[in-house]
Every structure is written in C-alpha cells, then in structure tokens.
Amino acid sequence: MILSPDIRSIHRDPPMGERLVVRAWVRTFRNDRFISLSDGSTASLLQAVVDHTQFDPELLRRVATGACLEVEGRLTESPASGQKFELQVDRLEVLGDSDAEKYPLQPKKHSLEFLREIAHLRPRTQTFGAVFRLRHRLASAVHRFFDERGFFWIHTPIITGSDAEGAGEMFRVTTLPPGHTAQTDEGHPDFSQDFFERETNLTVSGQLEAELFAMALSKVYTFGPTFRAENSNTARHLAEFWMIEPEVAFAELPELMGLAQEFVQYVLRDALEYCADELALLDQRQAEEDRQKPADQRAPMGLIEKLKFVVNNDFERVSYTEAIEILRQSPPNRKGKFQYPVEGWGVDLQSEHERYLVEKHFGKPVILYDYPANIKAFYMRLNEDGKTVRAMDVLFPGIGEIIGGSQREERLGVLSAKMEQFHIPEASLWWYLDTRKYGSCPHSGFGLGFERLVLFASGMSNIRDVIPFPRTPGNAEF
Ligand code: ATP
Ligand code: MN
C-alpha cells in the first residue's frame, strides 16, 4: 500500500520504510540532489532525495523554487545530521511549474513590508505559515473555551441598521447608484429608496445584539467580522477585524474580569501546548529581529517566556483613579516625557500611559476598571459615586488594549437618562431598551480583538501580519 500523508503526520509518526506519495511545494533544490519540500501542514520541511542519474535532466530542471511536485519513494533514515529521515524519490512529477527567476519569494530573508505587497504568496513563507497555523489554533481554542463553559455562539448581523453602537466610524452599506443624492425635506440623505429602506452600515460590534441573547440564553458569545472606518494608520488597528464578545447574564464586573483572565490564559496555554513548533520558530524570529534593535527597544522577554509568564500570573487589577495617581507621580510624567502629560482625574488614557503602566510600572497584564463615565459608552453601569462606570480594559505588554468591556446598565431609568445625556434617541434603540423593561438583570460582557490576541501570541509587531488579507486605509488589493 502507498500512503499519502501530509508532512505534519510524517514528522509526528514517521512511517519508516514505507512507500509514500507526497505533494508539496519546493523550497530549495541543492546539489542536484536534495529537494526541500513544504506543504504548509507544519513548520517542518521534508527532505526528498533524488539520484540525478535516474531522472531526465529536463525534468529535474523544472524542480524550481515555488514549483509544486508529486514525489514518490521510500522513507529511510537520513545519514545527515539535519533530519532523522528522508524520502528516497524514484518517481517525480511536476504538478505546477514555477519560473524560479521571477518567483517573488526567493530563498532568502524578505522584509515583512515587502511580503505585505505580495500577500497572495506570503503564506508560503515559514513565518506566515506559522502565524496562520497559530491563528487557526487560537480560533479553535476560543470556541472550545466557551463551549466547555456552556456558552452559546451567536451569529450577530454584519449589516446593521443600528447607528448607535457608538464605537467609531462606520462603513455604509448601500445599493444606491454612485451620485444618488435624494434628500428628505429636512435635507438629510433619503434612504427610503435604498435596499433596506433605511440607513445601514457594517457592524462595529455585536454587543447590543449579544445582550439580547444573553437575556434569553444566559451565556453567549459572538466571534465574527467587525468593521471600523477609523482613519488610524497604526500597527494595532485594522478596518476589518474579528471580534470575540462574550455576554453573561447575572455576572458583575469582578466576575467578568475573572472570565477575561481565564479566557486569555486558556487560549494561550492551548497554543503553547499545540503550536510548540510554530512558537519556537516565531520565538527565534523575534529574537533575531530584536538583535537588530537598540538595547532599550528590545522585548524584555522571549516570546515563549512571555506567554508562559502571562499564563501563570494573575493580571493586576487597578482602578482608573489609582492609575491616574501612579501616572501623575511617574518619572516620565514629572520629566515631561509623555506627549500627553497626565494632569488630573477625568482624562482618557493614551497608549503611552497604558504602556507605561503595563510595561514599566507593573510589568504584567493590567485590568483597569471604574473609568470616568463621560469617556466611556452610554451602556456601561453607573457606580454609586455617580461619576464612574463599571468599565474595564485589559492592557497587555507591547499591545496596549486587548480587551474592552463592562458591566451593563440594567436599570431602565438610569439608562434612559444616560442616553438623553449622550444625545442618543430612544427610538433608535427601542429593542435594546425593551430588555430593560421585560426581565432586566445584571449582566456583563467584553470585546476582544482577535488579531490583537494573535499579535500578542505570535510576537509579530504589526497587526497587518496576523490577518490573511489586511484592510487598512488605502489598502484592499488582495
Ligand atoms: P482602541 O482604543 O485600541 O482603538 P477601542 O477602545 O476602540 O480600542 P473597543 O471598542 O473596546 O476598542 O473594542 C474592543 C476590542 O476590539 C479592543 O479591545 C481591541 O482588542 C479590538 N479593536 C478595536 N478596534 C480595533 C481595530 N481597529 N482593529 C483591530 N482590533 C480592534
Ligand atoms: Mn478604537
């Protein structure tokens, strides 16, 4: 019998002495003899060996970097030190030729910026192969985590008619022809002729809809595409990203903080266990990159060391008020090193402040909570002090905010007053307010940007490198 395993299973349990058929892409072809093959199933390559006297030279000339091959032969022990086994090829077929001279992925080191320009080919590199296998494992761990705890996955809509989600700029969805300028008598755009007969946008968050389901199924989560037309060209923002939003009935803020920590630690622990090869490769990549940097810009820990640290240590819980005090007294603030000096209570924290707290002051993930009401969304629960809300942000080293969440305002009167204060018409969210009229209850939830999690877990430094096809201002080529 001829087996045709993927390269991952060959490495897991090498079928020594067996005849195998392997289909994979050529990385390199050395000395007319050693073909290094990858099928992307694992970080490991397969060494295939050909005796060039046994093959048509014309055929071997087509064994070029990037070409796709089918090779057949016996798996034997390798005399060389690089690998334990190799495939002794006696049949070789070129399934797809590659023009090795023009092939953009030469067997050398390419910059991540260059690879972004060839995003259709970059998954063939070792780095991106590792990132996307890791991404898959993290995504599957997300579902396992919630499933094991009795949460239901809710598919909230991608096209939304709600314009009050309040999380930033939205992309409009329309079938009106370009240049359509119909206006209502009041001079607003007239959407009555549009497909949905109202204004619709791509969702910026599934939270409000998830809340409706939490008030019915108790524990739910969303995991889906999210869109923000924010013009922030940072290494942490995408216009299209994937968000995970658990929403839990009867949970108050401390319980939500516990869930956030348990969740992140669970998925990272899972990655450490099941993506050991990928993480070893990415750890090495980060270390190499660090060596090019000045000493003060290097990561304080290796990738795997950092992940283990986060998995094994409690996150620090700090109130906004305490954080402001720490920041006010901090050396960079006193020496005028912050771009935005921290003067008093009430200001929103900038990423330089978040990073100081996490990276310099506490040296571990931090959960900041009880923020001033006026810098947070209308649906967050008002505290007894009347000026702070039960919000929490989870801040990570190197990333800044990875999770934003809150206990929700479940009291109809307080919520209505807040909406009025924020100029949100009740008519636009009548269905949301209904949950507060019929069986309201304390509940809490958070949103975690999946790519920020992958960014952290992979040690990559730009969010564009952890999503297959990044959408950012001015960029939607692939
Ligand atoms: P930031 O201040 O970083 O822009 P935010 O306060 O706008 O974040 P939330 O509205 O609380 O974020 O969204 C929840 C989570 O979604 C964030 O904690 C983050 O992980 C992720 N997120 C938000 N905006 C983006 C984006 N443009 N690209 C990728 N992830 C994002
Ligand atoms: Mn934002």
Please, could you describe this protein's structure?
With 478 residues, the protein is of the alpha+beta class. Helices cover 32% and strands 22% of the residues. The strands form three sheets. The chain has an eight-stranded mixed sheet with strand order 6-10-11-16-15-14-13-12. A hairpin with a 7-residue loop joins strand 4 and strand 5. Helix 4 crosses helix 7 (276-291). The longest helix has 23 residues, at 126-148. It starts with 6 loop residues before the first helix and ends in a 20-residue tail after the last helix. The mean pLDDT is 94. The structure holds adenosine-5'-triphosphate and manganese (II) ion. Adenosine-5'-triphosphate binds at residues 167, 228, 230, 237-238, 241, 243, 401-404, 447-449, 451-452.
Q: Any key phrases for this structure?
A:
single chain; 478 residues; alpha+beta; OB fold (Dihydrolipoamide Acetyltransferase, E2P); BirA Bifunctional Protein, domain 2; 2 domains; eight-stranded mixed sheet; five-stranded mixed β-barrel; 22% strand; binds adenosine-5'-triphosphate; binds manganese (II) ion
In short:
By secondary structure, this protein is α+β, with helices and mostly antiparallel strands. It is 32% helix and 22% strand.
Topology, element by element:
Elements: H1 7-12, E1 19-30, E2 34-38, E3 46-49, H2 57-61, E4 68-77, E5 85-96, H3 112-117, H4 126-148, E6 152-153, E7 159-160, E8 172-173, E9 200-202, H5 207-217, E10 219-227, E11 240-249, H6 253-274, H7 276-291, H8 303-312, E12 316-319, H9 320-329, H10 331-334, H11 351-362, E13 366-372, E14 388-396, E15 400-407, H12 412-421, H13 430-437, E16 443-449, H14 450-458
Parallel strand pairs: 3-5, 6-10, 12-13
Antiparallel strand pairs: 1-2, 1-4, 2-3, 4-5, 7-9, 8-9, 10-11, 11-16, 13-14, 14-15, 15-16
Helix pairs in contact: 4-6, 4-7, 4-14, 6-8
